[in-house]
Amino acid sequence: MVVEILNEIRKLNERELLSYWIKGEYEEAETYWILAKRARELGLPKDVVDTFKRLGDESKRHGDELYKVYRENYGDKLAEVNIANVESLNVLGKFWKIEDLEDVLKIAMESEKLAETIYRKLADECKNEELKKVYLKLAKAERGHYEALKALAIKMGITEE
């Protein structure tokens, strides 16, 4: 499925691509905030709750940053793009008990690695220098998200270094 989504993304023009990633970052933020709420409800350690909350806040800032570039070039109304979000975390339905945390973290880590790879590729292919800088900054941020999730997984005894 990821390959199909990537093939569809490649067909988008710059305006559509920005719209796609803006929506994706905002969706990711909402997902992380819901994960933080569920982690709190499940009584998981504060580190888990705080990590999910922070990642949600950062994803919202990423969306805001992309939206700023978008508005400067295209106005307020986002382009309609009907492609599944490649960075979408399909984890909400899987996080109902403490034991589910392992799967949630693994899925989230994979999602962040994929997002980093895609942002780097977009930066390589981008002709707009301002947007290229934004993509590289976001790739670095996605790497930071991956590292934060990995550190949490190690701390929780879910994975080794």
TrEMBL record:
Name of the protein in its database record: Rubrerythrin
The record's listing under PANTHER family reads: BLR7895 PROTEIN, RUBRERYTHRIN SUBFAMILY
- What GO molecular-function term can you cite, just one? oxidoreductase activity
Output the InterPro entries linked to this UniProt entry. Ferritin-like, Ferritin-like_SF, Rr_diiron-bd_dom
Q: Name all Rubrerythrin diiron-binding domain ranges.
A: 16-152
Query: What Pfam families does the database record attribute to this sequence?
Result: Rubrerythrin (PF02915)
- Write down the superkingdom of origin: Archaea
